[in-house]
Amino acid sequence: MNFYSKDKHNAFDSREVAQWIAFGPVIFQAARILRNSGILQEISDSRKEGLTIEEIVEKVKISTYGVRVLLESGLGMGLVLLNEKKYTLGKVGFFILSDALTKVNMDFVHDVNYQGLFHLEESIKTGKPEGLKTFGTWNTVYEALSQLPEHVQKSWFNFDHFFSDDAFQDVLPMVYKDGVKNILEIGGNTGKWAIASANYNPDIHVTIMDLPGQLNVAKQKIADLGLNDRVSFLEANLLDESLKLEKGFDAIWMSQFLDCFSEPEIVSILKRCYDSLDENGQVIIMEPFWDCQKYEIASFVLQQTSLYFTAVANGNSQMYSAETFLKCVTQAGFEVVEQIDNIGISQTILKCKKIK
Ligand SMILES: C[S@@+](CC[C@H](N)C(=O)[O-])C[C@H]1O[C@@H](n2cnc3c(N)ncnc32)[C@H](O)[C@@H]1O
Fold first, then answer.
1. Strand partners, 183
2. Yes or no: is domain 11-98 CATH 3.90.1150.10?
3. Across all residues in the chain, what is the average pLDDT?
4. pLDDT tens track for 152-173
């Protein structure tokens, strides 16, 4: 679906959209504080009755001035409505307050990206995640993850898991249907897929490969669940081109992993997968491609998420279009034998085999 072939705005509303962009950071922060301060919740609890500004001030213990500027910004955004001096919740306010996707995205943008994005322009110039320095000195966010402040880690993991977790149950039968028993999971993170796999079928063995910080969390979780004989661990940095992959796996599974790398790096990782698999081996990839989405808003979320990779994560990767990504797959010597779109919120599965 090409959402982008026609301009959907007329001149009048284009200028309005341009103002929303110009004031983007302002309305973002105001909406977030309206949510976090309890103002939206109090207004929501008052239902159709609504609350006066004095009543809101009394309930949230913020100055009249503070509540007023936030609410007036909220009026402009459609978060709240005002009738006869009483504020009620608008539809957009309802989603800011209660929608899980919106909450996860807003927390991720604020806690992980907001300050780092100030360095976006620099990152585009250098190809490095210049915004990561707002947290410390690392090459990529993945090396930093286990050392970031707790609330930042929480928002990062909530975001990451939100987009893959709900797909896992649908995907398990697709991955294991061809008799795959011994699987290597690259970028296994905190072990969610490995645990889901072990619970899915007692004959499956998963080997998780990841950086030490994430692997240690996975090891602890797997041990707590008594799954040590079902899951193995390999500590590795896939950016090290000299690192070869072990042979003997039926399949290699990578979920939301290859988007952490530039196109040449993706090709290098896939080539090493190629060398480690026998001729029947499969690489199974789960990725959210922005050009495979049913709804334009899903593409929008992915397109904007790309800038997290630019400014904070690594400086050189993104949420890819399938068009760009599939070229890397072919370049590494694989053909896609099956592509299944629209899994979970936004995922695509690619089953790849070696080109004979
Ligand atoms: C976005 S998370 C995906 C996690 C999980 N597979 C999922 O679907 O939710 C990417 C994972 O890749 C790992 N990773 C990133 N760069 C890596 C590298 N150079 N070597 C090994 N693992 C890496 C990260 O530590 C993280 O666990």
1. 206, 251
2. no
3. 97
4. 999 999 999 999 888 999 999 9
In testing the pocket of ligand 1, which one of 235, 257, 259 has its CB within 8 Å of the most ligand atoms? 257
Q: Exposure string (b/e) for 54-90, b if CB count within 10 Å is 16 or more?
A: eebbebeebeeeebeebbebbeebebbbeeeebbbbb
Question: According to CATH, where is 3.40.50.150 located in the chain?
Answer: 102-354
Please say if the pLDDT value at position 57 is more than 90.
yes
Report the pLDDT value the prediction gives residue 166, as an integer from 0 to 100. 85
Could you tell me where in the chain the CATH 1.10.10.10 domains are found?
Answer: 11-98
210 Cβ inside 6 Å of ligand 1:
yes
Give the separation between CA 311 and CA 303, rounded to whole angstroms: 14
Q: What's the CA gap between 246 and 255, in Å, rounded?
A: 19
> Which ligand 1 atom minimizes the distance to the CA of 237?
20
In this structure, what token pair is assigned to residue 133? 């320095």
Nearest to 255, CA basis, from 138, 168, 353, 150: 168
Q: Which atom of ligand 1 is nearest to the CA of 187?
A: 12
Count CB neighbours of 246 within 10 A: 11
- Identify whether the C-beta of residue 237 lies closer than 8 Å to the C-beta of residue 211: yes
- Please say whether the structural domain 102-354 has been given the CATH code 3.40.50.150: yes
pTM > 0.85: yes or no: yes
